[in-house]
Each structure stands twice: as C-alpha cells, then as structure tokens.
Amino acid sequence: MNRADQPHVFAAKIQKIWIIRCVDIPRDVSKKIRSAGGGDDPLHIPVHGWIEGVPFKSTLVPRGGGSYRLHVHSRIWRKLRIDAGAAIEVTLLVDTEPREAVLPPDLGAGLADTPRALATFNTLTVALRRQIVQYVDNAKQARTREKRIRLIVQRMLERAARRKKAQVRRKKEITKRLRKD
Questions:
Q1: Please, are residues 92 and 33 in contact by the beta-carbon 8 Å criterion?
Q2: Between β-strands 87-94 and 45-51, what pairing exists: parallel, antiparallel or unpaired?
Q3: Nearest partner of 138 among 125, 124, 126, 152, judged by Cα
Q4: In the beta sheet, which residues pair with residue 8?
Q5: Is the pTM of this model over 0.90?
Q6: Buried/exposed code over 135-155 (b: 16+ C-beta within 10 A; e: otherwise)
Q7: Burial readout 82-98 (b: 16 or more C-beta within 10 A, e: otherwise)
Q8: No. of H helices and E strands in the chain?
Q9: For residue range 52-95, what is the model confidence (pLDDT) as tens digits?
Q10: Residue 19 near residue 33 (C-beta atoms within 8 A)
C-alpha cells in the first residue's frame, strides 16, 4: 500500500507545449500517486515537492492512459536556467493540506446577493477560486476592489447562462436523435 507521505523521485525531460513547460509523470509513479489517495478528485491531484532542489506546489493533470502531467512554473525553470529538453530530477509528494482559499467577507457578500453567481462560483476548481480571491485581494483601493467584485459576480452569471444554454442545446440534440430512431 502506498502512503500519501511517501516521496516519489524520478528523472524527466521538460517539454514545451505551446508556451507551457511540463514533465510527464512516469506511468508507475502515476499509479502509485493515484493509489496513495490522491484526494477527492482523482483527475487533479494536489502535489508538492522539489524540482532540482527548488520547492514547488502544483496540481497534477491527466495526460491520458492513466498517467499525469506536471506543469513547471516559469519561476522554477527560469531560476534553474533550463528550458525544454533539459533533464531534471523531480521529487513528488501528494499534498494533503487543504488548499481552499478563504473567501473575503465582501466578496462572499457580493456573491451571496446573487445566489446563481454563488452557485457558479462554488462549481469552479479550487485553483480558480483561489485565483479569483487573489485578484480581489490585490486591489489597492477600495473602489477598485468593489469594481472587481461586481465584475466577478457578472462573470459568474455569464458563465451560468452559457452553461444553461449548453444544457438546453444538448437536450435538444438528444431529443432529435431519439426521434430519428
């Protein structure tokens, strides 16, 4: 049985996919991490560790065939002065610490005023919710912060409308197919 606190060390080559640098996690390591209890979401496993001794915190994403991919942040590859094609040593551990961002009271109130926006916000990934909270917290003036909160509420409503429209479209397609048969 694999434990979540067991480090997984492997060598990998950095790849460049569009503008993102990443490494593919070997299949055997992917299997061990998944069986170690990769959290509530087996597709996106929170990890932390070291790349050539530089600490990082990230989330593994599926790459197909039961394996995962690790995105290498620019702070790391630039600090190490390496790029695509470089061979690196990676040490991975499953991150069991909670990663949920604390919702600031003003953002929470702005979303709560519109239940549909709050419901949409709650469906976002933990990482995206954290980014939104950081976006609001980085506002230097109260007026800017209020403007950003209104913008986020608006974007959540737009996202909900797009999702609703897509659901209606899928229902129509299914109905159409059933009538043909």
A1: yes
A2: antiparallel
A3: 152
A4: 92
A5: no
A6: ebeeeeeeeebeebbeebbee
A7: beeebebebbbbbbeee
A8: 6, 7
A9: 999 999 989 999 888 999 999 999 999 999 999 999 999 999 98
A10: no
